[in-house]
Every structure is written in C-alpha cells, then in structure tokens.
Amino acid sequence: MIQKRASTVSNHPNEWDISSAGHCSAGESDITSALRETEEELGLKLTPKDFTLIGTVKQMSKREGYINNEINPVYVVKMDLELNKINMQEEEVSEVKFIPRKELQKLIEDKDPTLVQHPAEYKLLFQFLEKNYE
Asked: How many domains does the chain have?
C-alpha cells in the first residue's frame, strides 16, 4: 500500500509515498514512533508485534538551509486491510491505494516524478519480499 501526500505538506506534496513515515520525538524509540505515525496518518492501531524490521538506512541530504542526517529503520506490516477502513489524516494524506509490486518497481526504476524516491528503503523491501514471498 502507498499513500498520496496531501497538497498542503511542505515536502513532496501530491506525490505517492511509502505507507507511513515520520520522525521520532526526543526520547522516543523507533517502534513507538512507527506506532504513533501509523495511527496518526492512517488511523491504524497496531502493536509492536505487527511490525517486522527489515533493515536500517542511514542517509544525509542537504535541504533548503540545513543538513538532514537520518537513521531510518524500515518496517513491514503484513495484514488484511480494506482501504475504506482507513481513517486518513487529511493534513498529511489525501489518498491510499494498493499497488502491485511489479508496478511499484517500474515506477521506481523510471524515477517517476509522482513517487517519492526512497531507493535504499525500496531495495530492502524488495529483498524482503523476494526472500519471504517467492
């Protein structure tokens, strides 16, 4: 599942992105942040056991006036879900949809401008899927 970022967000408005993401608050663990962000953005109340850590990505980027250093743990959640059951946070998310893996891979390979690019994170995802679901 991917989500379309709201038109009002400052970074990548109206672009499709990974299902849920955010930053940890001071003193907050990454899993606590993942639980909070998933509930805030999608209205999904999950537990730590629902998440599978598939890897961590370290990256640095320069943005408008600052340097952004990140350590991004990447989690996967496998669950049965009906899209009409999702309660999207309108300030963050305008739409959600399921996308076949091959279609997502093509968007990434083509560097489609409607998709926020997370090459390292997607690489971890596809490695996990190939190992566990092929």
From this structure: 1
Q: Residue 51 belongs to what domain range?
A: 2-133
Query: What sign for the dihedral angle of Cα 115, 11, 18, 44?
Result: negative
The Cα–Cα gap between 107 and 55 comes to 22
Q: What is the full per-residue pLDDT of the chain (134 aa) written as tens digits?
A: 999 999 999 889 999 999 888 888 888 899 999 999 999 999 999 999 999 999 999 988 887 788 888 889 999 999 999 999 899 999 999 999 999 999 999 999 999 999 999 999 999 999 999 999 87
